[in-house]
Amino acid sequence: MNQGGVATTNGGSGSGSVGVQIHQSRRLPDFLQSVNLKYVKLGYHYLISNLLTLCFIPLIAVISIEVSQMNLDDLRQLWVHLQYNLASIIICSAILVFGLTVYIMTRPRPVYLVNYSCYRAPDHLKAPYGRFMDHSKLTGDFDESSLEFQRKILERSGLGEETYVPKAMHNIPPTPSMAAAREEAEEVMFGALDILFHNTNVKPKDIGILVVNCSLFNPTPSLSAMIVNKYKLRGNIRSFNLGGMGCSAGVIAVDLAKDMLQVHRNTYAVVVSTENITQNWYFGNKKSMLIPNCLFRVGGSAVLLSNKSKDRRRAKYKLIHVVRTHRGADDKAFRCVYQEQDDAGKTGVSLSKDLMAIAGGALKTNITTLGPLVLPISEQLLFFTTLVVKKLFNAGIKPYIPDFKLAFDHFCIHAGGRAVIDELEKNLQLLPIHVEASRMTLHRFGNTSSSSIWYELAYIEAKGRMRKRNRVWQIAFGSGFKCNSAVWEALRNVKSSSNGPWEDCIDMYPVKINT
């Protein structure tokens, strides 16, 4: 999970002045200062791994040019020559057949995004600022210092007045039971899936692969089993349930589904991403554990993927790349988002003061690996040349930061918090329109964890901005610590699907967010 980079001036539960600041030490590091060469090499390794395919392109072009320049006499001479070289014909044919067979067997199967859906909770679950603070006070669990802290977090969070919290949190006192948590999970997952199946006309029995991710709620039977039971999915379905992987787990789930679609032919995969709030609300007074209460809200998504060639005609997107970065080998990164109990024995998710710096390091690694896969050659040469000069001659020049706006038309940055969006906008030199979808998703729906990138994509579609061959970069952060990217290409001019999350409010956005 990424909680937005909000820092506190009082880390304990005792009394004292409370403030909310964004410290320089907790901002994303300036990417202009350092780039690790080994991650550049990793990105180029991915590029070279597809070199065989790339080499065939100029070979085919040369052969085509030569054939186009031949006349009838040349063709007649070639035929006479081949009649007396039967062995050569057989050898060449065998090589051609072998080469085509190897290519067909080893090339990755395309993965298409047929459609997706996002859950929108009913209006009675909305949690405007006033109601949120009133309920927090009435629970009797928070002291005055903690209440004031939560008020300041909300004011600076970037969240609007129409985000949702689960039904159990609207009760006074709150009722975070196992039954209530199951009810929340069912409403979100089934709500998103009902829309998906309706919009795609795909029968649940046709689903061959199911991947569900939810970090903090992992009951028995699992969430994936709940879906299998609800929709009576077939008995040989390949189902997976990912837990504890934070807000970037949605991209991980897509990557897993992609790998499964390479193995199992002619089938569909469904990816369900959500987070469960009911049993994970923190009722203590430790400041570093109160921030999730203020940012996380109800939400979920369901995505239908296919490896069927016939689905290309109706699919919205094609998956181009998935790049995953894991910093869990570093102890600070591993513990920067950590579920634990406070001194009073109350469970919550604690955020380290190093969170923003660690997120920045993971992001830098991820985009350095992604760059060679997506950037134009001109940008790669400028970047690589300045990097080599700096490494070899220890020059005092700053590395060239590639312009990712040349590689992508749209950006879906995980809506973890306003500070993260601000820092990515600055460090990647993006324009306000590039982060508009992230800011408006945070404002309208809050931090919906791993599903937030799909609300953002739905926003871009609802605004009518998605054109054929546009490329979309989805990037998310998660506990562990992880930074994961997915790159999609639009197969047509994409319009918003029915029952979308922005269906009745898109004309009100963008809104001005107070700083």
TrEMBL record:
<feature type="domain" description="Beta-ketoacyl-[acyl-carrier-protein] synthase III C-terminal">
    <location>
        <begin position="409"/>
        <end position="489"/>
    </location>
</feature>
<dbReference type="InterPro" id="IPR012392">
    <property type="entry name" value="3-ktacl-CoA_syn"/>
</dbReference>
<comment type="similarity">
    <text>Belongs to the thiolase-like superfamily. Chalcone/stilbene synthases family.</text>
</comment>
<feature type="domain" description="FAE">
    <location>
        <begin position="103"/>
        <end position="392"/>
    </location>
</feature>
<dbReference type="InterPro" id="IPR016039">
    <property type="entry name" value="Thiolase-like"/>
</dbReference>
<feature type="transmembrane region" description="Helical">
    <location>
        <begin position="44"/>
        <end position="65"/>
    </location>
</feature>
<feature type="active site">
    <location>
        <position position="326"/>
    </location>
</feature>
<keyword id="KW-0812">Transmembrane</keyword>
<dbReference type="InterPro" id="IPR013747">
    <property type="entry name" value="ACP_syn_III_C"/>
</dbReference>
<dbReference type="Pfam" id="PF08392">
    <property type="entry name" value="FAE1_CUT1_RppA"/>
</dbReference>
<keyword id="KW-1133">Transmembrane helix</keyword>
<keyword id="KW-0808">Transferase</keyword>
<protein>
    <recommendedName>
        <fullName>3-ketoacyl-CoA synthase</fullName>
        <ecNumber>2.3.1.-</ecNumber>
    </recommendedName>
</protein>
<keyword id="KW-0472">Membrane</keyword>
<feature type="active site">
    <location>
        <position position="447"/>
    </location>
</feature>
<feature type="active site">
    <location>
        <position position="414"/>
    </location>
</feature>
<keyword id="KW-0012">Acyltransferase</keyword>
<feature type="active site">
    <location>
        <position position="247"/>
    </location>
</feature>
<dbReference type="InterPro" id="IPR013601">
    <property type="entry name" value="FAE1_typ3_polyketide_synth"/>
</dbReference>
<comment type="pathway">
    <text>Lipid metabolism; fatty acid biosynthesis.</text>
</comment>
<feature type="active site">
    <location>
        <position position="443"/>
    </location>
</feature>
<feature type="active site">
    <location>
        <position position="410"/>
    </location>
</feature>
<dbReference type="Pfam" id="PF08541">
    <property type="entry name" value="ACP_syn_III_C"/>
</dbReference>
<feature type="transmembrane region" description="Helical">
    <location>
        <begin position="86"/>
        <end position="105"/>
    </location>
</feature>
